[in-house]
Every structure is written in structure tokens, then in C-alpha cells.
Amino acid sequence: MTTTTADYIGAYTRDVAFDPKRAILVLVDMQYATGSRRGALARKHLDVPGGHADLEYRFGRIESLVVPNQQRLAAAFRAAGGKVMYIKIGPLLPDASDAPAHMRKMFTDLGNYAGSPDNAILEELRPEAGDIVINKTTIGAFASSGIDSILRAMGRDQLAVCGISTNMCVETTAREAADRGYAVTLVEDACATTHADLHASTMKNFARLFGRVRSCDEVLAEIAGPA
To answer: What is the CATH number of the domain that holds 185?
Structure first.
């Protein structure tokens, strides 16, 4: 699914195809805390009487679409010589006192801090040797991690970004990257959030000057190169 804009802004939006030597797959916040039915978010808000239907949508999309597509993407990037980066969210301290004030209640309520079970990356997406794992405490990765210096040191300026939640940590990180000069592609069917309209809005807005929106299959075809 290639997303295009229907007005003048499409004439000014970058369209940079992936070069494996410069490309990196960025997986955002694929952790048990908010990315699994076995995680704290589900235990608190889904597995209760009258549980939130929006979370059923969220976890259904993660299980049926996002995780399988991220597995395909990670395998393809590794095979082509691209890199894979995992971004995790969560404070170092259990009381979240090292995190911004607006993030602390969610961290403490979900028990999401470094070393906790809910802080772990989903087993289905376990990092492999040569992958990079960084930690953040903010919604966007560039505000609270060394991602910018790491990417520049590695010479990786083409980012395929996906993860959860589409309209929060994924979108903010992708916009931060674009504003720092990176060529960014959002992988639409490798992202999830709690409402389809929020997901769609992110994709529509991001394609307006920030960068590209592509499907998993489109990214796989690019990273593989000419047949």
C-alpha cells in the first residue's frame, strides 16, 4: 500500500529507495508491557469485565499482521546487509523517577522498567547477534536516547520505521528522524495502535512532507534489489 498525497505537497515529499548499505530497520517498543495479551496493559484493561474493545483490535493486529511482517522485514534486512535496531521504552528505576513526569504513571502502573518481564522484547522478535538495542524514556526516541549519534556513526541514514503505537512512539520517532535529515519510511502494515482511524491519520499526515509510507511487501522488494 503506497500512500500518496492528493494535493500540492506530494511534489515536495522525498522518495528515497533503500540502499542496504545505508538502510536500517527500526522496531519501536515491541515489548510485553503494551504489545502482548500476556503483558501488563492487557492484564489491567483487557482481561477484566467490560474490557476495552480498542485493545482487542490492537492485540489482534499485532498478532496477525505486525509481528509476522516485522519478522519478514528483520530477516530481509539482515540478509541484504542492512541493520536492525530495537528501541525499548521504560525507565531504569522501578519508581520511574528517571523518566519525564508525564510518563511515570504509565511506567509504574504497568511495571515497565529495565529488567522487568514486561520490559522485555517479544520472544517472537528476539534480537539476534549484530542487532542494536537502545532504550528511551520518552515518546520519541531522539529525545532520550543516543539513537542519533549511533545512526550517524554507522552511516545509516535510511530508516524503515515500524512498531507500536502508530500514532505515538512510532510517529514521533519517525518525525524526529525526518527533521534531522534522515530519509524515513513508515511501514504501514508493520505498525499498530488502538484505533484504525488514528493509524490512518498518522500515515496520511506522515506522507505530507515527512517521508514515505510503504507496505511490508514494497519495502521487501526494495531491500532485495533488482531481480
So the answer is: 3.40.50.850
pLDDT in tens, 179-221: 999 999 999 999 999 999 999 999 999 999 999 999 999 999 9
- The DSSP code sequence of 4-64 is --SSGGGGGS------TTTEEEEEE--BHHHH-TTSHHHHHHTSSTT--HHHHHHHHHIII
Annotated catalytic residue 216? no
Cell numbers found for residue 132: 542494536
Catalytic residue chosen out of the listed positions 118, 136, 162, 216: 136
162 catalytic, yes or no? no
pTM, two decimals, is 0.95
Residue 1 lies in a domain: no
Pick the catalytic residue from 29, 118, 157, 189. Answer: 29
Annotation marks residue 105 as catalytic:
no
How much is the pLDDT for 6?
Answer: 60
